[in-house]
Amino acid sequence: MALASNSPRASIEAKISHHHGWKESFSVIIGADEVTAGKPSPEMFFEAAKRLYAEPSKCLVIEDSLPGVMAAKAAGMRVIAVPSLRKQKDLYSSADEIANSLLDLQLENWALPPFQDWIESTLPIEPWYIGGPVVKGFGRGSKELGIPTANLSVEAFPDLLAEQACGVYFGWAGLSTRGIYKMVMSVGWNPYYNNVQKTIEPWLLHEFEEDFYGEDLRLVIVGYIRPEANFPTLESLIARIHQDRKIAEKALDLPEYANYKEDSYLKKLTG
User: Fold this and answer.
1) Residue 194 has what pLDDT?
2) Alpha-carbon torsion (103, 120, 204, 144), positive or negative
3) Which of 2, 164, 167, 189 could pair with 28 as two cysteines, CB 3.0-4.6 Å apart?
4) What angle do CA 128, 134, 137 make, to 5 degrees?
5) What global pTM score does this model have?
6) Closest C-alpha to 2, from 69, 53, 67, 66
7) Which of 34, 47, 201, 228 is catalytic?
8) What is the DSSP letter of 207?
9) Is it the case that residue 195 has pLDDT exceeding 60?
């Protein structure tokens, strides 16, 4: 595996040095100052293939930039584009595949060994924590979904939310006066904000008779299910939400996820 970047070699080394094991993951590292022309020229990718002793046509490139996609295609390589900006996806049509995020890479589709860390149709992730008062709860969408829903204000954690890929996640939810419950959560774009701000909507997998508007809610997100998607009908969306629910309920009983129910972040809230 090679890393080929338009950044200078020294900048690449400085960036990846902050992440344990990253440098050791690459057999080849090439910076823009090591070739005569950077991307969108294919020279960098030709040089990477040469150092890997690989034919360019046998290489798969994962790119987030348009110049990178252009360079890889000019080198005769296959390309998976993971656009860094959502609104630019239509510019990446020359790529062989456009992925929503790195979480959605399915390397077996490219005759490569599949990732081994998926469990029961779920992907364990580094846990992340958010919380606050419920600004919209229970009634919103619950009659259609049959699942109590909640909304948190995203103003308290915009940077954390910006880092997360759009999609469906799951984990544990703690309500201050009620307890801890299994939870599925969507992260996506709200047209109300002109598609510039992500929103979150947790679905608590439990039956409630009363609304929990204004109540403190804490979430520990521990796994990923699927990317954000558009559905042709409300019925198809509801069907998929219930499928996500079944996946999450089953997965959260597994030891890899179940222990997070005892996380101190939730215990402090519920006592």
Assistant:
1) 56
2) positive
3) 2
4) 115
5) 0.85
6) 53
7) 201
8) -
9) no
